[in-house]
Design goal:
Number of domains: 4
Shape: globular
Radius of gyration: 29 Å
Largest sheet: 8 strands, mixed, barrel
Strand content: 15-25%
Structural class: alpha+beta
Length: 467
């Protein structure tokens, strides 16, 4: 701390020293007094700098949590919207059960992401209630149909309303993500305000984006089932790191530095829940390493991405190489999505030629220089384990005969797909072409010969996705 003293103050200071000497304070005690004062000032300055650094690290931790949770919440709510649209056309107990389980799962994951946002629970109560009720209503509807009841007009009306609300929330969340990526929305806009007099702690309030989402629930229907939302999904234990020992924060930091080649990474906090991890940050980089096993779970470099110099095909090859460099060789590219100059590629693990769709890893490649700017292995860590496959009761030829005559098969593969009750089903996967030249994926159960799923492949300038 530096203070500029004028001439008059200097004279006063000197006069004070002379007076002190005359009053009996010796030169040595005076020097000690001055030295103590200087040391105190230095100590206070160091404390201020340390507090500033700690506050900055804390802010980075909040920003990291917000950015990741917002991205995941947007993805899950978008999935809810798509699945609710499908639910309007389901009539059989099996179809409804599959759709209900998917909705229940996505709603659970969305609530988990919502809980990680640094916002006051009271500010997002309507959003949280909506997610709870989506899961409850659809499971209850599936149970009723399985017992012989029919879907009523009131049920369809409720599904319509749920779909409308999901669409609104999805659109608003996508806008928030877009604003975040363009710089219009700053992570710091999750602002801290002091509580009223008499309250001890600060409260973190939601920004304008979430306020708009909450306001969209003003006329939300009250007839939807309000029962307790099952958190079974959120309590699942990650299979890939089951039984692995805990790593220290220092070991995790070493792993993070080796993975990113960034020496300036610092510990920014911990992620709890069913997949505990250490979080590290440095400038625009965020990375999470699991506490069990020390596995890199998530990575994001939010640097601005320049004009593209790579093609989508080149970026996919870069993503494949990045996975191989990390020791993941038995993976198959499935789909990709392009957003803000970053191509995010979805890879599924394979086992003896079988595609394991639950075991996903996503790799994001910046099209300006081909660098890895995002990585998400949560699906793989949560689901991957060695499976035991039995001989298929339904052959490929028999499965082909089950398909619609309007479909022309182009290729065949064996695939493990998520099924009802959070289980997995081994299927014949057929890539087909429909009558209108649309690409269709059809999945036939190798045990029962039942058609498990039908997906439409959507390919445009923004990517290749299956819906």
């Amino acid at each position: 701390m530096f203070v500029h003293l004028g001439k008059n103050k200097t004279k006063t200071m000197k006069w004070g020293i002379i007076m002190a000497t005359k009053r009996g304070l010796g030169r040595r005690p005076l020097v000690r007094l001055i030295s103590f004062t200087v040391a105190l000032i230095v100590a206070l300055t160091a404390t201020s700098v340390t507090s500033y650094v700690m506050a900055k690290d804390y802010r980075r931790s909040i920003e990291y949590t917000f950015q990741r949770a917002l991205s995941e919440l947007t993805e899950y709510v978008n999935d809810l919207n798509v699945t609710l649209n499908k639910g309007q056309y389901a009539t059989t107990p099996k179809q409804l059960q599959g759709i209900s389980t998917k909705l229940w799962q996505d709603a659970g994951y969305a609530k988990s992401s919502l809980a990680h946002l640094p916002v006051n629970e009271g500010e997002i109560s309507a959003t949280s209630k909506f997610l709870s009720q989506v899961g409850n209503f659809c499971l209850t509807l599936a149970d009723r149909v399985s017992e012989g009841d029919s879907i009523t007009d009131a049920d369809l009306e409720t599904l319509d309303k749920l779909s409308d609300y999901a669409s609104q929330v999805s659109e608003q969340l996508r806008q928030m993500v877009s604003d975040l990526e363009s710089g219009r929305l700053k992570l710091g806009e999750v602002k801290t305000e002091f509580k009223k007099e008499g309250e001890e702690k600060d409260t973190i309030t939601v920004d304008s984006g979430f306020k708009e989402i909450e306001e969209s629930f003003t006329d939300y229907p009250t007839m939807i089932y309000d029962g307790p939302f099952s958190d079974h999904i959120l309590q699942q234990q990650p299979k890939f790191i089951k039984g692995k020992g805990q790593v220290s924060v220092d070991k995790a930091l070493q792993i993070a530095k080796e993975a990113t080649d960034i020496a300036t990474l610092k510990h920014a906090g911990d992620t709890n829940g069913n997949l505990p991890a250490y979080d590290f940050t440095s400038e625009t980089t965020r990375i999470s390493v699991t506490k069990a096993g020390g596995v890199v779970e998530y990575f994001l470099d939010s640097r601005p991405v320049g004009e593209p110099t790579l093609s989508n095909g080149d970026a996919i090859k870069r993503a494949e190489k990045a996975l191989a460099d990390m020791g993941f060789n038995q993976f198959k590219y499935r789909y990709y999505a392009l957003n803000s100059g970053v191509l995010t590629v979805n890879f599924a693990a394979t086992q003896n030629g079988v595609i394991l769709y639950p075991d996903l890893i996503k790799v994001g490649i910046a099209l300006d220089d081909g660098s890895v700017v995002s990585y998400d292995a949560k699906g793989y860590i949560m689901n991957h384990t060695t499976r035991e496959f039995t001989m298929a009761k339904v052959s490929e030829q028999e499965a082909r005969g089950i398909l619609s005559k309007r479909l022309t098969v182009k290729s065949h593969a064996m695939a493990l797909v998520p099924s009802d009750s959070l289980s997995e089903t081994l299927c014949h996967e057929f890539l087909c072409v429909g009558e209108n030249d649309e690409q269709v994926l059809a999945y036939v159960n190798v045990e029962t010969g039942m058609e498990e799923q039908i997906l439409i492949i959507i390919e445009d300038e923004m990517g290749v996705l299956a819906m």
